């Protein structure tokens, strides 16, 4: 049976080459994304960076711990406590100490002037000895107004230069008296100890040159401080978990890409193998007439699939091994992954890809080979002339089950929690079931849809429209197989890009609805405080209501087993918050927010106004706060609100300003902009701020989606061309018959091209139907969440996908047809299978 299979493969090499290419590329994609995904599981080990020269570092506890029935659970604090001045003085009796203060600063054109590639921070030079910073030019600062700066690649600043520096006090000119090389983990400006203490009274940490045991003894128990020595000093570095955090987004992106590519690959490979077997009904009929049993036919098909599966899966693994490092390099270059992101030596993704490819190859021929084996010889020969019985009951039942499952999950999500529909995991995976259902139903839908779409072209002068219509309607298996890749491309393009754009537009619409302020000033980065001078100046402007807010967080113990941290905003008062915003309050009143209460959203387990909930604040304090109001979930941006007293250590990073109706708006605008210029910040109108902070899509998100879409589209495009080449090559006798009836080569090629475009249009309509259901689900979810926003359809992307598919389909169909038509029609018509 194996020898017969090999001889058959040699005879029908075009069909088997097509199956080989589809499977090899599919396995290659799975291997590529799998290897890249595996590289995100482990971040590189970094030693202590900033405090590498310190013996001991003392800082506030940066974790909250809770004993649960399943063990101790920990969560990171948003605003760890400061080191009290009294405690710092006591530590000085143990050994030499240096007080470390970290505060935000900025320098105009910092990337050019000092070569900064990250946001600048300010430090006291007194702690420089405990860090890797060493002067490369100039001297240490000794007087107010003198600074030392880090210099990165391309830095233009030199010792003796005067630069403008924006500090928490406001903008001012400083003299650069020295430079140190950039360390890579931060860009910094160093001040004298006295000036740093004035700019930032908070002591973030203290370095102690003493034995760690002696330091712990001096602190005692219950101080709320953590002693860091040895490798633990890394916890005092700027963003010590930045490598792991950077890999979280990369992992999510590649996980999504791997899931989509695996789905697309399995779907297209299975479709290709099924079509390849279905093409050979006449061959199977001849084998049955020659005495082959159904079991022998099936074993021959399995043997062919096994040979192709092993060879193509091996080639795909080699392709993935070659492509994965190049994918990682591209992601690093585009900023989608850290610059150090590299592919490791993991082998398991290759095993997964190989065995997935082989399994799909075998499973792809099971149903088709079973049908071919059980059909009688005469029936098989008769069936080969026209596609009939293309939709068996088993396939119809499976398609109905998949369709109902997909729709049921969508409806369940809308009923139980509409917010889940807006989550990336849901709106990316939701279309998959609908795509599978549509592809399974394609043989049933292709014939009526083709006749509907070609009703007008078939009535135009000439026979091309009519012949294309009848050919596509008669060759249901061929039309469905060619339409399958188009269904995927259009459905994924419209669903991925359209849903993301719709949700982004909904978030912007929600922000516009909630915004009642006339001006907004923000630091740009959460946690970077605005200059106190601007806040004071804004409050002094007559005729305005000023509401300041801070970024913080709260942690709750849910169901007694999980610590869950939520982002929160700390405001001056509920009254000021009500004046500058119109939040979706479903219970209670914002004006009731005070130091003993909290505003939560409907996602919290406890949402009854007046109930008290135990929470850990951003600095680790555990308090019981009364629920003053409950907010609707909305698009997910309606978080938790506290008062400033419950956000100790957090600086003001946003100011909302509401101008009174009877105030002189022109005078208010002049004073606010003058205060902003003096402080080095930017005042934006409410509309300008929303436009700046609610873009249609961030660059990284856009590139990530385009990467996922490109991977899927390239593969489905190749599969489309592959299937068309197989289908057109199998129709050489039909084309010859047209030539013998008097059609010219040009007319035949025109017919093939029109038929290819028509099949692409059929696939595009079915794919658009899947996208319509998905986008309608998103729109319904937004409506249930009381967010009024229109559906955004990415017409340019969808149009480009359809156009590219049409061009590719025409080329893939007409090129093999033109080569076949070089042979005399009489010879083609007399060719045997």
TrEMBL record:
Pfam families linked: FtsX
Membrane topology: Multi-pass membrane protein
Keyword Transmembrane: yes
UniProt keyword terms in alphabetical order: Cell membrane, Membrane, Transmembrane, Transmembrane helix
Bilayer-spanning residue ranges: 252-278, 299-324, 352-372, 393-415, 427-446, 479-498, 703-727, 748-773, 793-815
Residues of the ABC3 transporter permease C-terminal domain: 257-376, 707-823
Localization terms from the record: Cell membrane
UniProt cross-references to InterPro entries, sorted A to Z: ABC3_permease_C, Macrolide_Exporter_MacB
Keyword Metal-binding: no
Main location: membrane
Family named by the database record: Belongs to the ABC-4 integral membrane protein family.
Protein's recorded name: FtsX-like permease family protein
Organism: Streptomyces coeruleorubidus
């Amino acid at each position: 049976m194996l020898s017969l299979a090999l001889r058959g493969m040699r005879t029908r090499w075009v069909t088997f080459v097509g199956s080989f290419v589809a499977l090899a590329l599919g396995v290659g994609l799975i291997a590529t994304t799998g290897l890249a995904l595996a590289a995100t599981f482990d971040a590189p080990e970094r030693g202590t960076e900033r405090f590498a020269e310190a013996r001991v570092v003392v800082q506030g506890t940066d974790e909250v711990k809770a004993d649960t029935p399943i063990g101790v659970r920990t969560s990171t604090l948003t605003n760890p406590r400061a080191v009290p001045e009294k405690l710092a003085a006591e530590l000085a009796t143990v050994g030499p100490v240096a007080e470390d203060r970290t505060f935000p600063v900025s320098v105009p054109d910092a990337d050019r002037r000092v070569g900064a590639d990250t946001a600048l921070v300010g430090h006291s030079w007194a702690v420089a000895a405990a860090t890797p910073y060493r002067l490369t030019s100039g001297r240490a600062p000794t007087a107010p107004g003198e600074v030392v700066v880090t210099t990165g690649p391309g830095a233009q600043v030199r010792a003796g230069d005067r630069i403008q520096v924006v500090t928490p006090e406001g903008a001012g000119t400083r003299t650069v008296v020295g430079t140190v090389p950039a360390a890579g983990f931060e860009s910094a400006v160093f001040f004298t100890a006295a000036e740093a203490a004035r700019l930032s009274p908070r002591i973030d940490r203290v370095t102690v040159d003493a034995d760690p045991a002696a330091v712990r003894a001096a602190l005692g128990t219950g101080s709320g401080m953590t002693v860091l020595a040895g490798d633990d000093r890394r916890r005092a570095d700027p963003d010590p978990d930045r490598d792991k955090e950077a890999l979280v987004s990369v992992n999510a992106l590649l996980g999504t890409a791997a899931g989509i590519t695996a789905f697309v690959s399995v779907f297209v490979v299975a479709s290709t193998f099924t079509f390849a077997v279905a093409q050979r009904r006449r061959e199977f009929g001849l084998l049955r007439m020659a005495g082959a049993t159904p079991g022998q036919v099936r074993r021959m098909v399995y043997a062919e699939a096994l040979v192709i599966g092993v060879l193509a899966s091996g080639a795909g693994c080699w392709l993935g091994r070659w492509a994965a490092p190049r994918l990682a390099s591209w992601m690093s270059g585009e900023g989608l992954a850290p610059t150090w992101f590299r592919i490791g030596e993991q082998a398991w993704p290759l095993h997964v890809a190989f065995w997935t490819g082989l399994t799909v190859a075998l499973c792809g021929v099971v149903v088709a080979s079973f049908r071919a084996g059980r059909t009688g010889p005469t029936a098989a020969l008769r069936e080969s002339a026209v596609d009939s019985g293309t939709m068996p009951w088993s396939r119809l039942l499976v398609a109905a089950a998949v369709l109902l499952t997909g729709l049921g999950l969508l409806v369940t999500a809308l009923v139980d929690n509409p917010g889940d529909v807006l989550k990336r995991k849901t709106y990316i995976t939701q279309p998959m079931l609908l795509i599978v259902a549509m592809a399974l139903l394609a043989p049933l839908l292709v014939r009526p849809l083709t006749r509907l779409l070609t009703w007008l072209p078939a009535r135009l002068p000439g026979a091309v429209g009519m012949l294309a219509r009848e050919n596509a309607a008669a060759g249901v298996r061929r039309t469905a197989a060619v339409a399958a890749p188009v269904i995927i491309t259009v459905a994924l393009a419209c669903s991925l890009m359209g849903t993301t754009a719709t949700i982004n537009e909904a978030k912007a619409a929600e922000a516009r609805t909630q915004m009642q302020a006339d001006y907004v000033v923000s630091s740009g980065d959460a946690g970077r405080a605005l200059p106190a001078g601007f806040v004071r100046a804004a409050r002094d402007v007559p005729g305005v209501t000023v509401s300041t807010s801070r970024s913080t967080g709260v942690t709750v113990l849910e169901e007694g087993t999980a610590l869950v941290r939520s982002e929160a905003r700390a405001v001056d008062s509920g009254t000021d918050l009500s004046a500058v915003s119109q939040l979706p309050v479903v219970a209670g009143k914002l004006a009731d927010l005070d130091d003993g209460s909290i505003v939560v959203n409907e996602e919290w387990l406890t949402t009854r106004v007046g109930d008290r909930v135990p929470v850990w604040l951003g600095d680790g304090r555990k308090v019981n706060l009364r629920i003053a109001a409950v907010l609707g979930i909305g698009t997910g941006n309606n978080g938790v609100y506290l008062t400033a007293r419950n956000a100790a250590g957090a600086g003001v990073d946003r100011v909302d300003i509401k101008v009174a109706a009877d105030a002189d708006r022109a005078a208010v605008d002049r004073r606010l902009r003058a205060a902003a210029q003096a402080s080095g910040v930017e005042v934006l109108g409410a509309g300008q701020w929303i436009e700046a902070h609610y873009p249609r899509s961030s660059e990284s998100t856009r590139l990530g989606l385009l990467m996922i879409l490109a991977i899927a589209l390239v593969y489905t495009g190749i599969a489309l061309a592959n299937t068309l080449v197989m289908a057109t090559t199998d129709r050489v006798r039909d084309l010859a018959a047209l030539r013998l009836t008097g059609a010219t080569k040009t007319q035949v090629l025109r017919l093939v091209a029109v038929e290819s475009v028509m099949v692409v249009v059929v696939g595009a309509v079915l794919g658009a139907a899947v996208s319509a259901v998905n986008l309608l689900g998103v729109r319904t979810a937004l409506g249930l969440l009381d967010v009024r926003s229109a559906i955004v359809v990415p017409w340019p992307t969808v149009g480009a996908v359809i156009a590219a598919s049409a061009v590719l389909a025409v080329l893939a169909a007409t090129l093999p047809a033109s080569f076949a038509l070089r042979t005399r029609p009489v010879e083609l018509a007399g060719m045997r299978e």
